[in-house]
Design a protein that fits this description.
The protein is mostly helical and 145 residues long. A two-stranded parallel sheet has the order 1-2. The longest helix is centred in the middle third of the chain and has 13 residues. The chain is globular, with a radius of gyration of 16 Å. The protein starts with 13 loop residues before the first helix and ends in a 6-residue tail after the last helix.
Amino acid sequence: MASTLKPDFGRDHQLTDRVAALRDPISPADPFYDWWHACQPGVPQAFLAGLAKDASAIPAARWRAILEEVRRADLTAVGRAVQVQALIIAGGRDPLFGAVHQRALAQALVGSRLVWAQDCGHNPHWEDPVSIADAILEMMPGLGG
């Protein structure tokens, strides 16, 4: 899972509501994908359309089953057992996992570094790939070639 160890999506969370509303066949133009793939301007629309097309091939029942598995997940103990450096890159406008989730993840992963991509949503690597690459290179300078 990205950005959290314990999602805690309640029955009143936007994701829960939006996945519950999906009906087969799911159209790649379903408004769900505008929310699910919400990004800053500049992310190529063709890229997002391709993602929506691929995701719409997933039956609605499977979306709901995956969400139920994610809702029950608690990786807190596993996270605390991680013994390597970790770079956590969090979108400041992430509609799924906010600051509470990010801080809990950073606290569980001892020695981790939390970097905020303030103007990004859940997918900062799509929205600001240069800054994300810079953060990775700063954390792991040997990658810079």
